[in-house]
Specification:
Blueprint (H helix, E strand, L loop, with lengths): L2 E6 L28 E2 L8 E7 L2 H8 L7 E8 L4 H9 L2 E2 L2 E2 L4 E5 L22 E8 L6 H8 L4 E9 L8 E2 L8 E3 L2 H17 L10
Parallel strand pairs: 3-9
Antiparallel strand pairs: 1-3, 1-11, 2-3, 4-8, 4-9, 5-6, 7-8, 9-10
Length: about 220
């Protein structure tokens, strides 16, 4: 099994072949390893952690909504969050007529703000409106969910970066440590062992295919 961690930059589709007429590039422009595919997705205008694997059972295990893997995001939003808005995010706002599942939400200030390289292209800035960073953790992956959640509470997302994925095995989440945008690495031996245990537990529970997790 080949499994990689990639820090997907802005403007890249979560697939290895380009789309005809699309202005976005694809994973094949970044990763030259054959027969790996994304376990879950990030929209082209989102950034951050993608797991790429050659193992279809692992893809299924990581995207099956029954297992509720926590996925955490840094969201740079327009405005300054207040306690009510943060609680709305935690409770789950209504998005497209359906309430989202409860989430974790925290305002990152000062030294807690993520230290990221400038995005290319940079986000839009408006001098009269401040921006803030939120840490949001979700267990579901509806289409453009984080952006729609923050917009629903009056905090439009300007930049979105998936920072970690929790394997829900009592170990540390997989994260972006050591990965600059566009860079990737193979999982370590310890990480591979944990991923293999996920597959084994899926087999014993009778895994069914679930929908893709998106950001």
């Amino acid at each position: 099994m080949t499994t990689l961690l990639l820090n997907k930059p802005y403007g890249v589709l979560s697939q290895f072949t380009p789309e005809a007429g699309s202005r976005w590039s694809c994973l094949g422009d970044l990763v030259d390893v054959p027969d790996v595919y994304a376990a879950g997705r990030l929209d082209a205008d989102s950034e951050g952690l993608l797991i790429l694997t050659s193992n279809g059972r692992l893809q299924q295990r990581l995207t099956d909504p029954r297992f509720g893997h926590w996925r955490s995001y840094w969201a740079q939003v327009e405005g300054t969050p207040n306690p009510h808005q943060l609680q709305q995010l935690r409770d789950g706002p209504v998005v497209q007529g359906r309430r989202t599942l409860p989430a974790q939400a925290r305002w990152l200030q000062g030294p807690d703000e993520p230290q990221l390289p400038e995005r290319t292209p940079p986000i839009r800035y408006r001098a009269a409106i401040p921006t803030s960073w939120l840490l949001l953790s979700l267990t579901e992956g509806r289409n453009r969910q984080v952006r729609r959640m923050t917009a629903a509470v009056g905090l439009p997302t300007l930049r979105l970066v998936r920072c970690c994925i929790d394997l829900m095995d009592n170990g540390p989440p997989l994260d972006l440590t050591g990965l600059q945008p566009g860079a990737w690495r193979e999982v370590t031996a310890a990480e591979l062992k944990r991923l293999n245990r996920l597959i084994s537990s899926s087999s014993s529970s009778g895994l069914r295919r679930g929908g893709p997790q998106r950001g």
